[in-house]
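Please, structure for the following, as C-alpha cells.
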Amino acid sequence: MKKPISCAFNMDTACVELHFTDGSIYSINCTAVENEAADNRFQRSELDYLIYNDPLAYAELILNGDVEAYLNAVTEYKPYEN
C-alpha cells in the first residue's frame, strides 16, 4: 500500500501535491475542487484554511470524496439581514 511521504500546497500551480513512497505523485487542482464543491465564500474559506494549514487533511478529504459532508458540517452561513 502506498503511503504519503510529503504533502504541500504548490502556489505556482494552485495544486496540493502528494508524494508517495512508490514514487507516484498526485496533484489536486484546488481551483477545480472549489468551483465544483463550494457554493459560497464561506465554504471556499474553509477549504482555503485546510489548503494552507493542513494540506494532508485537505488531500485526504478530496480523495475520500467527503467534501460536501465536511463543508456542511463546518460552515456556518448566516445571510445578511437588514
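Residues 4-74 form one domain. The two ends are 55 Å apart (CA to CA).
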